[in-house]
Amino acid sequence: MQTHSGLAQYNIIGFVTIVDVERAKEFYRDKLGLRLLSEEPPFALVFDANGIMLRLGMGKELPPARGTVLGWEVPDVAATVRDLEQVGIHFERYEQLKPDALGIWTTPTGAKVAWFKDPDGNILSISSHPERQG
Question: Which of 4, 61, 64, 110 is most buried when burial is the number of CB atoms within 10 A of its CB?
Fold first, then answer.
């Protein structure tokens, strides 16, 4: 029988399309604090996202966002929301989810999630997952 090793042992690389390179660079580097590894025009900005490569592909247009494209797991969503708001990041409110005053949704499993957008409208999130701790 043939063994299948799959991809579980390899690092994932994140890909997000951007249009406004300078605004994206400022947002991901200066507001989110990611380290810019390289600029590869006309292809991508490459960032280090805590050991994971994030490639922001340079595009001419971007379809409207339909869902979250990147998320960060954080220990305290409320503290992170307040921290990011201090650098001008606006958090989305999805009223149908009945978020709290900071816009944080608590899932049926107890996870907490908050969403925000990058300058090109890509939907990003921060979340904590108590079921994974322990």
Answer: 110
